[in-house]
Amino acid sequence: MEQLAERIVPTNKGQVRTTSSAVRRGSERVSQDYISEWPNFEANVRAFIGSINVHSPRNRSAPVATIARVSRPSSYMIGQEDGIKGAMMAFIAEPVGKAIKHMSLGGATRAPGQFPFPPEGVDFSGVGFGDPKCIPIRFGLRPDSREMPDMAILRKGDQDPVLLAPIEIKTPWTVDLTQANSKIVEKRRDLGVLIGQLVGYMNATNSKYGVLSTLETTVFVKRDEVTLFRVSAPITSSQTGPSLNECFLYLTGLLATSPTDGGDPPHRFGQASKPGELSKDPSGQGNPKRGSKQDTDVDTA
After folding, report:
1. How far, in whole angstroms, is CA 58 from its chain's centroid?
2. Where is the composition biased (Polar residues) (predicted)?
C-alpha cells in the first residue's frame, strides 16, 4: 500500500485555460447553518490504512506492491476541466482501483502472502470508480442528462451498477478550495456555495457521501442526520500522512461497509426534483444550531 501514501504528480497547467468555474450560484447553495466539520477525518483515514497494513502480506512480490510509481512531474498540459478529470482517472482512480481489486481478492481468498486483507467488515467486491452515465435513471439523474456529476464511486451488481458517491470536479485556477475550512464559521458561507452543486447530486442520488475536487485540493462531504453536512479539511495532492489517495481509499471503505438503500432518499427537506434544486425546510425545523449535539458529535467511522 506504500504507493498510495505518496504525493500525487503536480498538474501541468497550460497558459491558455478556461475561465469559468461552472459553480452555479443561486439556489445551489447550502446554508452555513447546515455545514459542520467532519471531525477526526484524517485520523480516521490513518487508522483505516493502518488496519489494512496489519493484515497485508509481508511478501514484497504481492500484486499490491507492483502499482507503478510516477515520481516526475506530468508532461501533459491541462487547460480545462476534462484535463483535470483525466488526471484524476490516472493518478487516483487507477491506483486506488487496483488496491481495491487486490483487497477484494484478498477478502475472497484469505490466502496469506498473496493479497492484502481488507479491514474487518469491509467488502470491496464490485466497488470502484466509474462514469455516472453508465448508471440507470435514479432519483432524478438521467444518463442522458447534462446535469450529471463528473465521476462517481460505483458498485457493480448482478444487474445495473449503483452510484455510491458522486464526485464533482473543478479546475484549480477557477475554484480555490484551499480556504474551504469548515472549522471556521466565517468560511462556511463560501463553502456552502462551493458544495451546493455536489449536495444537489447527493440529494438526487440518495448518497450519504460526496467529493469535490480540483485534484490539487479536495474536500470530502458526509451527510449526517437529515440536513447537516460534515465537510473535511482541505486535502492537498502534495500532502502525505494521509495522502489524497489514502483518503479516497478510506471513503471507498466507508461505502463498502454501508448498505445501499434502494428506497426513497433519506432527506426530507433537501429532496431535489432536479440536481441542484435545494429546497429549504418548509417547517423551519431541522436546522442544526451551532454548538448543538449534531454539531459536536465525534465521528468514529
Report:
1. 30
2. 12-21
Residue 247 CB: number of other CB atoms within 10 A? 25
Buried b / exposed e across 220-246, counting CB within 10 Å, b at 16+?
bbbbbebbbbbbbebbbbebeebbbbb
Nearest to 104 by CA among 122, 79, 77, 80: 122
Strands (E), the chain: 12-13, 35-37, 77-78, 127-130, 151-155, 162-169, 209-213, 217-224, 228-231, 235-236
How confident is the model over 185-203, as pLDDT tens digits?
A: 888 999 999 999 999 999 8
C-alpha cell at 66: 507492483
3-class SS letters over 280-294:
CCCCCCCCCCCCCHH
Nearby residues of 253 by Cβ (< 8 Å), 6 or more positions away: 48, 118, 119, 122, 124
Which residues share a beta bridge with 12?
77
Rounded Cα–Cα distance for residues 10 and 175 (Å): 17
How many CA atoms within 13 Å lie on the side-chain side of 142? 5
Pairing of strands 162-169, 209-213: parallel
Question: What spatial distance separates the first Cα and last Cα of the chain, rounded to whole Å?
Answer: 21
Reduced to 3 states (helix: H, G, I; strand: E, B; else coil), residue 199 is helix
Model-level pTM? 0.76
pLDDT of 214-254, one tens digit each? Answer: 999 999 999 997 789 999 999 999 998 899 999 999 999 99
Question: What backbone torsions phi and psi does residue 110 show, to the nearest 5 degrees?
Answer: 50, 40
Look up residue 207 and give its three cell numbers: 448518497
Q: Which three cell numbers stand for residue 8?
A: 500525487
Torsion angle, alpha carbons of 93, 99, 101, 105, to 10: -170
- Assign 3-state DSSP to the chain and report helix, strand, coil percentages, each to 5: 30, 15, 55
